[in-house]
Amino acid sequence: MTMLLPTDREIRALHEKYAPTQEAFDLVYTHCRIVHEIARQLLVPEVHDAELVRVGSLLHDIGVYRLHADDSYLRHGILGHELLRAEGFPEVICRFCSCHTGVGLTRDDVRKQGLPIPVADYLAETPEEELVMYADNFHSKSNPPAYVSADAYEARIRRFGDDKAAAFRSMREKYGVPDISKASRATPA
Fold first, then answer.
1. How are beta strands 139-140 and 146-147 bridged, if at all?
2. Contact at 8 Å (CB) between 14 and 63?
3. Does some domain include residue 2?
4. Domain of 154?
5. CA triple 131-134-140, angle to 5 deg
6. 173, part of any domain
7. Residue of 27, 100, 122, 156 with fewest CB within 10 Å of its CB?
8. How many other CB atoms are found less than 10 A from the CB of residue 48?
9. Residue 140 forms beta bridges with which residues?
10. Extended beta strands in 36-145, E state
């Protein structure tokens, strides 16, 4: 059975529907487009469903629009998952929201770090989820938004444990390092 995936136009309309401001839309939607461009560079056609990677990349951060001032940013994945579920999307698409943070979060991470999300595993289970999660690490929605090198990201994630840095290195060996200059030319930040 083939799943009907939303078009780029339908995804943009969802972003427009939920973005509380034009500034929020510009930041999040542009980031999602950049993540898609990075994922496209690293995609292996024999392994990944390119259309599912497109949809996952373009929707993975939609939950950012639902964050309130007192929310932890970490909650955006759960909020996005809930938003897409309420919109009628299948679980395979909703999971891109809740399972893209860093190199994945385990229930042990949630407990030990006292993270403000339900205790569960938030780990990529499919090649497409893993690719979107990995690609997301190369662009930050910081102020101003910025591209992140593989070395800089590995150094940043190491503060959460050597196991997280090792997981990133493993994905780096598996997928390679994207050409960030190519992504920045293809998709304006």
1. antiparallel
2. no
3. no
4. 8-186
5. 130
6. yes
7. 156
8. 19
9. 146
10. 139-140
Global pTM reads: 0.94
Residue 153: closest CA among 189, 183, 180: 180
**Does 143 map to a domain?**
yes
Asked if the structure places residue 42 within a domain, the reply is yes
* CATH code at position 18: 1.10.3210
Q: How many CB atoms lie within 10 A of CB 44?
A: 11
Nearest partner of 135 among 102, 105, 160, 161, judged by Cα: 102
Buried b (16+ CB within 10 A) or exposed e, 125-153: ebbbbbbbbbbbbbbbbeeeeebbebeeb
CA–CA dist 35, 183 (Å, integer): 9
Per-residue pLDDT for the chain (189 aa), expressed as one digit of tens each?
467 899 999 999 999 999 999 999 999 999 999 999 999 999 999 999 999 999 999 999 999 999 998 889 999 999 999 999 999 999 999 999 999 999 999 999 999 999 999 999 999 999 999 999 999 999 999 989 999 999 999 999 999 999 999 999 999 999 999 998 777 766 654
Nearest by Cα to 105 from 83, 76, 82:
76
Residue among 187, 181, 6 at smallest CA distance from 89: 6
